[in-house]
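Justification of computing resources. Each target in the renewal requires a structure prediction run like the one illustrated here; the chain below, 294 residues long, is used simply to show the kind of job we budget for.
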Amino acid sequence: MAKMSRDLLFSEYPMFDRIMEERADLCRRVLETALGVPVDEVCNVVAERTVQPRLGSHGVRLDAMVRTKSAVYDVEMQTIARRGIGRRMRYYQGAMDTAMLPPGADYTRLADSYIVFICLQDEFGAGCPVYTFDMACAEDGGVGLGHGFSWVVLNASAWRALPEGGLRGLLRYVATEEVGDDKLAADLAAAVETANEDAAWREEALTMLTIEEDMRAQARFMMEEAREEGLAKGLAEGREKGLAEGLAEGRAEGADKLGALVVQLIDAGRLEDARRAATDAQYREQMIEEFGIG
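Resulting structure tokens:
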């Protein structure tokens, strides 16, 4: 098979993870721009960290887990839409908190934390370039909980809705690779160019991306099969169950389980398992049982 030759984009996870991990200065500036608040000097960045809240539980793969003197951050780059982003963020928050707090430690020792999702698409369909989520008292908005965390989802596709400034420049670069006159975007583009000069790493990263694309193609193919199976079942049993119920059953038994499994395996960094599960029915059932999907 011929080797791939294209350069990686900043928005593709191997490049994003590398820049965030190797360039703490850029990582801090991305966080400051995304959140609109000052960020302390970065002490540590771990890319592709798998966090498992407890033995046997569903692990999560964090793109870039960042620690400063006073806070911890998880910054994620999301190039495709995924269902249930709110529940994903909830689980990520719990996993991060569990990893941060030693046994027996008081809850007051939990550092402030931030989860930032940088998305190429609008996850909520409201057209906002920024979605900020916080907990508030329904009865009295002036009552503060003091929970110490914040969640932000950035919608790069709506960068034009932002006024001129750093966040507009960052999201424009994520969405289009255009630098313009934005200093952060220019520095990110220079770092991306340097990383792409590492030919061995670039080819390995492109191979990993191809594996993921193959898995997702397999998943889409099997989802179509599930729909066709559901349609056929609905037609055959129309008098007893009806078309809609037969179709729903086919989807539930095929597409939903496979889709959930692929997402969980990718989040856990188990790409080879995901690729095998997409084509090997027996192995897929083993993985479904392991992850408790059903």
